[in-house]
Amino acid sequence: AGAGTGGTITGIARGLKKHNKNIKVVAADPHGSILALPESLNQEHVNEGYKVEGIGYDFIPDVLDREIVDKWYKTEDRESFQLARRLIAEEGLLVGGSSGSAMAAMVRAVKDLGLGKGDTVVVVLPDSIRSYLSKFADDDWLAANDLLPEVNGLETQASSNKPETTDPYQGATIRALRLKPVMTVSASSPVSEASEIMRDKGFDQLPVLSATGNKLVGLITLGNLLSYVSSGRASASSPVSDVMFDFGRLDEVVTDPREIAGGEAKEKGKKRKFVEITLDTPLSTLSKFLEWNSAAVVTEKGEGNKALSKPVAVVTKVDLLTWVVNKKA
């Protein structure tokens, strides 16, 4: 079972061990929580946030008897959600993410304890899918939080019965959009220089390169620039770094409407993981990316093994829409 406040696993463990002292109790604790024993299990991902809800804590609840658990396993969000989705798809059990965590611990325990056909294994599935329909049950939410399966495996099996869908973009890549070559601006350049480039070239966004070197560090947009200057937060002489979207500081994407409306700030400070967009990226992938982002900086690898990726274009929803309209004309 998973461990949160500890009431479930502590109570059940004590009750069962009264009748059979040979029973082994296994607990699941997410990476980032500190409930597991020995303490060394908690060190690798200490203070990290996690998406699975209902289990794990950053303190030890009074109700929880950690010593009564025979074996603790640390679980990851990806495997937990993957197994929860398998339970839904293959067994018809409408469970939540912490049930997937319990299953992940069980799978490892069966191997480690050498259990076979004659043994009885019981897994506590404590939550339902009701509160998570816009979260791990949604492929787009998983993608936005970098929780899609990395390789074909369990998730592929779970979705094998889904009807095949036709790619609306017919396999086309960003190269087919014929984007205009982009101009860049340095993070140390004055805002006035960025404004002049936007006006003269008709750009709404400009990739920003580091003041030293050619590392892509951010994006400056017409809307953001206008907001800063008109409100007095920046002037013509302010450096571009003051008004750009700094890629190193962008927080993780929040896609749950309830979290957005409620102003919740779970795992505040967790940084966004970025997806590399190139001229060979499929338009279907770009379309998914633009559901949660206003624009994408298209890059290509420079020459040499240690060369940095350099921006070659900026692509927006308008570019994608124009391609679709022209194809259907």
TrEMBL record:
Residues 178-235 form the CBS domain. Its cofactor is pyridoxal 5'-phosphate. The keyword Protein transport does not apply. PROSITE patterns: CBS (PS51371). One of its GO terms (biological process) is sulfur compound biosynthetic process. Pfam families: CBS, PALP. Keywords: CBS domain, Pyridoxal phosphate. Belongs to the cysteine synthase/cystathionine beta-synthase family. This is CBS domain-containing protein.
